[in-house]
Amino acid sequence: MKEEMTSADVAALATELGTGEDSLVDSKIGKIYQPGESLLRIHLYIFKKGKANLLIEAGSRLHLSEYIPPSPKNPQSFPMLLRKHIMGGRITYFRQYDFDRIIEIGIKRGDDETVLVVEIFGQGNIILLDCDRKIILPMNPVTFKGRRIRSGEIYQYPEAQLTPLDVNEDQLCEVFSHSDSDVVRTLATRFNLGGILSEEVCLRSGIDKTLPASEVNPQVASKLIEAIGFLFSPLEKGELNPCTVSKPDSKETFDVVPFDLEKYSDFEKNYYDSFNKALDDFFGKRAAKSLEQKKEATVKEKTEDVFQRRLKQQEGAIKKFEKDIEKNTSIAEKIYEHYQDIEQLLQTLLDAREKDYSWKEIQSIISDAKDALPAAKKIVNIDGSQGLVMLDLDGKKMNIDVRLTVPQNAMRYYEKAKKLEKKRKGALAAIEDTKKAMQKKKAAPKKHFKVVHKKHWYERFRWFFSSDGFLVVGGRDATTNEELVKKYMEKRDLVFHTQAPGAPITVVKTGGKYIPDTTLQEAAEFVVSFSSIWKGGQFSGDCYWIYPEQVTKTPESGEYLKKGSFIIRGERNYYRDVPVRAAVGLELKPETRAIGGPVSAVKVRGEHVVELTPGKFNQNDIAKKIYRIYVERLKDVHFVKQIASPDKIANVLPPGESDIKK
After folding, report:
1. Which domains does the chain have, with CATH numbers?
2. Which residues cross the membrane (predicted)?
């Protein structure tokens, strides 16, 4: 089943949506949603056609769609920031980069020009660039060797591959001469063709796909170049014939292509007026069906006990182990049953290799010797690159390694059966543990939680109670910074701050008491972790503490202070290289609520503590992950939703993106 678009698919779609009657150029961009972790929906107003929805799934697909996934109840940060930059803008171009699985969408809004880059390979990504190709915002901030996809960096394309549309015989021969694989794999990996199109090129050229790449000569290269030209001529001429493909005995489609392939000549096909419609029928309909199945599964899970689900999974695993054990044991026995024939075949293959025959020549020799070698009639395929011969012995297919003896080949399958038997026994033991846990759960009375919570003034701010019991309060924004200093800061308090932008003013409420070092250290971690240092993905930072009388709103003559800003005068007491870390927990007594802050402080007052580090998941996503952890642990959805819903958890998280520390 096809999981992602190929380079040829991207080329066909870019031609279709970038030019002609189906063009998206001059379409106006409306609201943007993120229905899934890697899925983006952009509402469009297409010139003279009306409303439409563009679905982009990073690493998989891009097309207009009639199958609209539901929008999340709480808008996520990435689509909201995209709205800020491109909503109301118009598409100026829609094109493929090189022959890669990258689409660039040019956008102009007023005087601002931006580019939305869609990467449809690997894990994939969606990145917004400014007019200088500097990254404004990536969906997933990542760092590769020599390539950083993070805000503020200049966008760099992945390492370029050769384009099959422009390659000549000399370039082809050069690439194949340095490949230690076969023809089809080299075409797939070095020319951005993928498996299916590489096989199609071999089929049209008449070249054996298993031919070692090092054996490609100018004559073979010429045939491959000619086949590539014929294959992609519909793209160059704009004469697409898009269709979905299914097996004759199945109604389920397994591929979608922009033009006919000889490889699929005997398969059932359904043709479309446009490639975009074919993509939507293949990817969009399947995604909608999958979403419906997930909903049904979720409903079923809610009515099914966790131990019952686990038991079903373990019983299913045992059945699979038993089936695989029987299969591998049977193959080993078949190898011994045909001992002499296989031994004679292996000797023939080894003799031919010692004479420096190529695998193609060996296949020809074996084909001519089928009358003399009974086992030769049983050959299904020869994989020269791996040194494997696939045989069909009495209806059982098996791989024989030409470098091993007959007993050694049989032993390979016996060893596989032994390993599977160990796993089967382990699964049986796990089933017994699950059954004991089920009995224990039946015997144990269900724990009922009671929600106890009062409203406190400090809950409008960022806050935590230190390990020593001192209240530490920080601003959330300019307004709360201002309010905290003017209304709640007292002379006997201590004030923490960092010079990093976006850092909250943080006040330690001393009550006139001596402040231990543990509280000071936790306050330092708090002010650093809840600043832009966390957003920047750093793992340590500096901060300082001062006395309240050092904080003033009176600027120097001729200066102006914006809302939420203050002037600090006098000596500062610094904390250097303070670790950036935080935690979330559940306070279950005397009150019930979600709490967040430094790890040590949360562990003293909270239960079910989840530690966090700067990472890749936005606040909404990480809050949902933590919420699911609490539901699983407490087994009381109603209680968890009341005290620690995703919204309440997000309220105590550090700003920016996070990961759960394992």
Report:
1. 7-154 (2.30.310.10), 169-271 (1.10.8), 311-418 (no CATH), 462-660 (no CATH)
2. none
